[in-house]
Structures are given as structure tokens and as C-alpha cells.
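Dear colleagues,

For the upcoming journal club I promised to circulate an example of a predicted protein-ligand complex. I picked one with NAI because it came up in last month's discussion. The inputs are reproduced below in full, followed by the predicted structure.
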Amino acid sequence: MTQKNYKHFQLETDADNIAWLSIDKANASANTLNRELVDELDSILDELETERPRGLVILSAKSGSFIVGADINEFTTIKSTEQARELIRRGQSVINRIEGLRFTTVALIHGHCLGGGLELVLGCDYRIAEDGVKTRLGLPEVRLGIHPGFGGAARLPQLIGAPAAMDLMLSGRAISARAAKRLGIVDFAVPDRQLKDAARSVVQKPPHKKPLPFWKSATNHGLVRPLLAKILRKKVAAKAPKNHYPAPYALIDLWARHGGNKQAMLQGEELSVAKLVLGDTAQNLIRVFFLQEKLKSLSKNPFQATRVHIIGGGVMGGDIAAWCALRGMQVTVQDRQEATLAKVIQRAAKLYKKKLKKPRLVQEVLDRLTPDKNGLGIAQADVVIEAIFENVEAKQNLYREIEPQMKPGALLATNTSSIPLDVLSDCLSDPARLVGIHFFNPVAMMQLVEIVSADNTDPEVIAKATAFTRQIDRLPLPVTSTPGFLVNRVLMPYLLEAVVLESEGVSPQVIDKAALDFGMPMGPIALADTVGLDICLAVAETLSQSMNVDVPERLRSLVESGKLGKKSGQGFYRYPAKKKGKPEIEKPGKGDYFPPDIQDRLMLRMLNEAQACLREGVVSDRDMLDVGIIFGTGFAPFLGGPIHYIESQNTEALLEKMRHMHESHGERFTPDASWTSVG
Ligand code: NAI
């Protein structure tokens, strides 16, 4: 047995002459592919070619993952297409070399095997994955505005057939070891303890590989590709327009043109990814990726909660409780009404079935969620989250009652969406202990959580709330306790402008289309219906007391007539029971009234409010503002956030538009004082 250590690898050759190459990127918690690592791998391959072991097993020395992808930091250093092409060629060439080795190669996969990591293992003869919950395989490149470039687009459709391969590459989703086995991406999915034995026996007696069934391989045929490509383009168009997200279309075009020819595909990948990576969409999506990482890194306090107590089992409290239990905590949930608590458990069970599928796992999580009408959990809880009615007196009465029962050092948080923290904390014997942990609806889908603090909030409490938010896998955004905090404040003027447009006779479809054309994932009218018009009205009314917003009569009248949006079956749109919550939305008709300034009216109100929040210091800086609005409102990620968007435009022209709007539509378009200082 011999062992050699390199900077990022260890190579061990055992008594059977099998070489075990462990990837262990220096000074990193996970393996990512960068130039240095790829160069080192290349030189190890030189040695292996001379040594000719019986077989090569590639594995990861990191505990939680195999290779999580290419090093995205490197993407930001690329300055020219030529430089990008060179980097891609380098990656492709080392994988081609692995593929060309004249002895059996096996990849042993555990944990995340994503992007460039999966492309690397596609160069091996065999792939064995650990059959465990942490194993995830995928090609998420489209999420960063590019597509696989290290041979993934060339190899995967050949390996498993085009429909499944394109689905994975176009969606960017990651799959389990078992799903990968079913699709044919990995040859074996085995438990952890059998991984090494499985690899050894594959090297010693390489199993016969079944060819891809005819009906799958036919999907790559030159006559089939154009037809399939047409279907794929249509499918993608329903989700991501080409002018906003060019990568999936580039991938489909590439495969349609060269799908049967590996060499041409590899060259096409190089050219296409090099072009995409320097484009605005990819650069902005990469920026969003780093901003998201920045939010994750805000959690520095070692606080770890074990027990959480939620008070108020309504829309928010119930879902927060369910989510915390799903993330591993012991949760007690308190409400005045038994019936409400029963509903919390029902909703939670539904969520867990969807997420966990296996009844045993569902039951495990349900066992951690306990209805607690009398609040017995308060005294043991590390975190108490209040999510009762939006009413100062009710909340204060509750705090007075629970403060003496709470453990010292336990976190007391409110989910209030509009009441200033210092007003609420006034009744506490220690007002500095109250913090806002403001979730968005639906809790299980919305990653962002605002961490709200007042001037007197204890910094230690804020740090603990931030750590807790990460513990439950949400993104913490620190904001000041000013009306609407960040997200609702920026969102509301945009939603209200949509309501004003609708009351002027513009159809909801036309309004929503204008926002979708800008790049919003959902139109403002559909969004208002989803959030609930009563909730919109309540937030708008609160904001109207402190901001330049008028509450449109139309919103009030809809709420008064019981039309609350999706939840009541009707809001601006109708939601017939037979369509299971889907709205009846017709496409805008030719005769529809389409005001020429509709998109500006909607978006400028949002951008203007974003500017105001930045100037007032609601968040600490422009990055926090951009990431908050992207994750809190869905603001077109490919534009990199509202402030980034403003700065990338001709600001003078935007300001001119604002002035023009101000003249024609009134006070609500008054440009924020900061407009003159940007650009
Ligand atoms: P909800 O009306 O659905 O639920 C409130 C629940 O609290 C009810 O089940 C009620 O029985 C219970 N409750 C009231 N007083 C109580 C008390 N003293 N002890 C125990 N239980 C009590 O309200 P929702 O929508 O869940 O809102 C709760 C809080 O979350 C509010 O502060 C709201 O501003 C905030 N919020 C709401 C969002 C939404 O979209 N609904 C979004 C973000 C925050």
C-alpha cells in the first residue's frame, strides 16, 4: 500500500493495485472545482497513466459532500470570452482524460454532487452513490444563468436519453441517489457501509453495462431532436422568457444542433457557456448567489434552540410551528381555540407528507409538534414566537403574562408585520429582549425572514434571532423597526398602483402581464389575491399613516364584499373550486386598454420606495436591500435587485420619467431625495 499527499488530493494505492483518489480541497469545507484543483488533478492523471493501476476510485474526503460544483468565485474573475473558453476547455480536458483512462474508473458519491462535480463523474466508467438523505445529484447551472460546460450537456443525454437529461439541466433540480439510479445516472445506490466494497468489486469484476433502450437513445436522433427541442422551448417559455433567461434556450439549441456528435457538443458547450457567463443575466444571478451567501453568513452567534413555543395558531403561527418542527425542533403551539390547533396539525401533516413522503418520517416530525392550549411549553422554550392578532393591546397583555414564565436568556420574538417594536416592548420589564422575526406567507416557501430591531433592542438578542433563523434554514435580513420594515414597504406602493390601474379600467390580465414582461415572477394583481386582499388592506392602512400612500377605494370595497382573493374563491380573479386554487386568467385581448406607461407606473413606484428605504437606512446597505427585495418580493433576479437595476440604467432618464409621472399622476410619484445622488 502506498500513499501520496497532494495539496487538494490524497492518492492511496492498495494491495490489489486499486488507486483511491480522495478529493480534499485545501482550506475549504466543501470541494469546488477551480483552476488550481483541476491542474493538480491533471498532473495526478499523468502519474496514473504511467503507473497503470488496476482501477481508479474517485471519492471525496469531505464529510458532507462529493463536489458541490465549479468555484463560483472564479466566474467573477473572468474578463473576456477567450479567458472563459480557456477555463472551460481546461475542465473539459481533464474529464476527457478520465474518460480515456485505460483502466476501470469508478466514482464513489456521497452528499452533494452538483454541477461540475456531476460532470466529472460522468467521465467515469461507473458511478456508485450512497443511498442516504444527504446525497443529491444535479446540474443547477441554469440557476446561475449558464448551462453545463464541462461535458455534461454532451454526456448526460447520451447516458439517460434526452427527455430526462434535458429536464434535469433545464430545471436545475437535484435528485436523490435512488432517483439517479432509476434514471441510470448512477449504476448502484448502496448504503454508506457498503460503498467501498461495492467500488472494489466493480473494479475487480466490471459489471456488464446495459445499452440504453432504443426508445431512449432514439430521443437523441437527428430526426427526433428538432421535434423534442420545439416542445422543450415551449415548456421553458412558460416559465422563463428568452430575453430574461437565455441559458436554457442556448442549451436546447445546442443539443438540437449537435446532440448526436460529442465533439461538436463539447465545443458548443465551450462557446455557449463562455458567451453566457459574461452576459448580464449570468452576472446578476451570480451576484444574487453571493448576496444569498452573505445573508447566510450573518449568523455568527452560537445560540442553538431545542424547544420553540409559538403563540397564535393562525395562518402564520401554525405554519411557523410546523416549519420549526420540520427543521428538527421540539415545538409547542398555543392558541385560544382547540379547533385552530387541530387545523395546525392537519396542515402540518399535509406539508410533511409532501416534503418527506415516507409515513415513518412524517410521524417522526408530527411527534415533535405538540398542541398546547394552556401554554405549558413557555417555561421550557428557548424561543417564544408570538403570532397572534395584529393588535397592540392583545400583544402587550400577552407579553405581560408570559415574560415572568420565560427562561432567562430565552428569545422573545414577535411576527408583527406593522406594529413598531418599541411600542410593543414598552410593557416588558426588559424591553431590550423583544425582537421581530417577521416571516412571510407561505412560510414553507418564502426563504426570507426580516429580523426587526428597534433602537433599544439588545444586540445579543438580534444575533440570537439571526442564528435561530439560520437554524431553521431561512435567510435572515436585518431591518429597522420602521413602518412596513423593508419588504412590505417596497412591495405595497407597487401593489397599490396595480389596484389603481385596475380601478381605472385596465384589466388585471394586462396589469399582470406588464409586470411579468419586466421580469417579476408573478403579476401584482395575482400576488395581491394570493397574499389576501384583507392582509393587503391592513398593511396599506398602516403604511398610509406614515407614508405617501392612499388606500384605493376599490381594495376596501372588495374586502367589504368578502372578496379576499384566493382564500375566499374570488378577489380580482375568480378561483373556481374545480380548478383547485388556480385562477381563471384569460390572456389579454386585442381590445384591452393598455396604458403606454403601465410598466413604469408599477415599477417606478417600487424602485422609488427602494431608494427611500436605502436612504433612511432601513437596511444597512444596497446589497441588503437588493437581496431582501429579491427574496422577499421575487423582484426579477436576473436584474440583480432594484438598486443594482437603477444603477445599471441611465438614472437621469429614470428620474426624468419619475418627474413626468409626478406631473401626470400626482404626489405618489414624488421622486425620493436620493435619486439625485445615485448613478
Ligand atoms: P390569524 O388571525 O390567522 O391568527 C391569529 C391567531 O391567534 C388566531 O388563531 C387566534 O385564535 C390566536 N390568538 C389571538 N390571541 C391569542 C392569545 N392571546 N393567545 C393565544 N392565541 C391567540 O393571524 P395571522 O395572519 O396568522 O397573523 C398573526 C401575526 O402575524 C400578526 O401579527 C400579523 O401581522 C403577522 N403576519 C401576518 C402575515 C400574513 O400574511 N397573514 C404575514 C406576516 C406577518
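Two points we might discuss: Residues 103 and 268 are 29 Å apart (CA to CA). Residues 81-100 form the longest helix (20 residues).

See you all on Thursday,
B. R.
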